[in-house]
Amino acid sequence: MKAKALANKTLAVETARFHELATQSLEWVWETDALGILTYCSPSCKVLYGYKPTELLGCNAIEKLIPPQDRETQRNIMEEMRQSRKPRNGLRRRGMRKDGTIIPIITHCLPVLDGTAVVGFRGLSRDISVIQKLELHLEHKTRELTEVNNALSLLLHQGADARAEHERRIHDNLQRLVIPYLEKIQERCKDPELELYLRVAMANLEKITSTFNLTLSARMDGLTPRELEVAELIKQGRSTKQIATLLDLSSRTVEFYRDKLRVKLGIKNKKTNLRSHLSSLA
């Protein structure tokens, strides 16, 4: 008798503690029988659903608190739990308040077992409207940042292309409008001092325009310095004879370089104009 009385006292203390905890908790603590009829409701159901505990006890939880269009899904979930006898944590669903308002709910639920038989369900439910709003806000901001990042990447790409095109035009204009005339003056110049000035001027121009050839060099990685020189002159429209004269090579050697360029650029035995191909790479 004493043992039974002690056990009853212990059970009463534990029940009181549980009820106190459930009463103070912001989460709704609930329990149903095997058919889903509510057998326990903590007072926080008033905040969550707008019902007093007495209004929910004895009611079917799904019929009372779940929107009609979601009830079949919820029944299937409970049946899965009944079959597996395993809990479901972090289950997101929609709840229906007393006034008909639909709210987002997260529930942690576990089956109550008597041996191997499921005799009920109990769990905790909480309104996650604030969390959901924050998630949507974060998702929106992430999408905005992605769009801004894509726009910046596009602008940077366009800026690089515009800069490369600007440099190419400067380079082409120098080669077309300036260098040929300096070469002609150098050919006809008889004054050693003036010829020296011309060589220095042309060397300095070469240094300036060499920075504009970086794009071409980068896209034709693997070419030797001499092959790059020949490639640049071909791109300018120079003939084999002109290239031979400018680089102090034989025409046969220039033809050899032209053939090697076609091989390295992957257009050997193709009906592709070498100058046009080189221009497309610049």
Describe this protein's structure:
The chain has 282 residues and is of the alpha+beta class. It is built from 12 helices and 5 strands. It has a 5-stranded antiparallel beta sheet, sandwiched between helices. Strand 1 (28-33) and strand 2 (38-41) form a beta hairpin. It is rod-shaped.
Can you summarize this structure?
The protein has 2 domains: 2-127, Beta-Lactamase; 166-281, Winged helix-like DNA-binding domain superfamily/Winged helix DNA-binding domain (Arc Repressor Mutant, subunit A, Orthogonal Bundle).
CATH secondary-structure class of the largest domain: Alpha Beta
Structural class: alpha+beta
What fold name goes in the CATH topology slot of the largest domain?
Answer: Beta-Lactamase
Strand order within the widest beta sheet: 2-1-5-4-3
Largest sheet: 5 strands, antiparallel
| Name of the CATH superfamily of the largest domain | PAS domain
In the residues, how many domains can be counted? Answer: 2
Query: What is the CA-based Rg, rounded?
Result: 42 Å
List keywords for this structure.
2 domains, 63% helix, alpha+beta, Beta-Lactamase, rod-shaped, 282 residues, Arc Repressor Mutant, subunit A
Strand and helix map with partners:
Elements lengths: L1 H23 L3 E6 L4 E4 L3 H5 L3 H4 L4 H5 L5 H14 L3 E9 L5 E13 L2 E11 L1 H60 L3 H19 L3 H6 L5 H11 L4 H8 L3 H14 L9 H8 L1
Antiparallel strand pairs: 1-2, 1-5, 3-4, 4-5
